[in-house]
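In this supplementary section we document a worked example of the pipeline. Step one takes a protein sequence of length 242 as its only input; no multiple sequence alignment statistics are reported here. Step two produces a three-dimensional model, which step three serialises into structure tokens for compact storage. The input and output of this example are shown verbatim.
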Amino acid sequence: MRRMFASPLAAAAPYARVKQHLKDELAAGRFPPGALMPSEAELVARFGVSRMTVNRALRELQAEGLVDRVQGVGTFAARLNRVASTLRIRDLQEEIAERGHTHSARVVRVRAERAPAALARQLGVEPGTSVFHSLIVHSEDGVPLQCEDRFVNPACVPEYLSVDFTRTTPTHYLFDVTALWRAQFSIEAALPTAEEASLLGIAATDPCLVVVRRTFTTDAVITIARLVQPGARYTLQGDFEP
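The serialised model returned by step three reads:
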């Protein structure tokens, strides 16, 4: 009996198939540095996927320094003399799944709140503007791994409050519905707040890795998130390929 097996690429998520195809083409020298790459419309037609799917693939390639995107012009193979240290935005749910473990989420709150002056400046809105606030605890095999405290600009994500975040993560949802252009990070070792310690099931004196991340479209702030991970349960890793 002849057995048929799907290739890993065929089984991958649609955006991952588009991304891997373009990475393979770049590795093969199909697009020399500075060369114009296929347009979003061409990739949509070739792979039979949505423009949103293609956009995500191109965003991730840009974040990895493999392509340059110029709004209204197109996508270009990155020039090899541009090397930078990058930190890729990843979905925690995907990271946990890659380890063969189970992700679960406890939604503590998802609601609209009036933005005080300091937060309003961070989100680029007027003080007192109604913004969206979510507080979610992510667990790996039932063990709390991350406390995600996030504020969202409603102008960029008007349907945010209606999403079931026990089924998808805010990161995954925001990847799908927004045109992410750039991100800012700060990373520090710090103590959790009393509420964060309680939600994570740790002592208030336990050190944590705290990442504050702000993301942008071309002309607006999308979200600002405080991600708190117990130091004993979480390691920040990365890799570099020349």
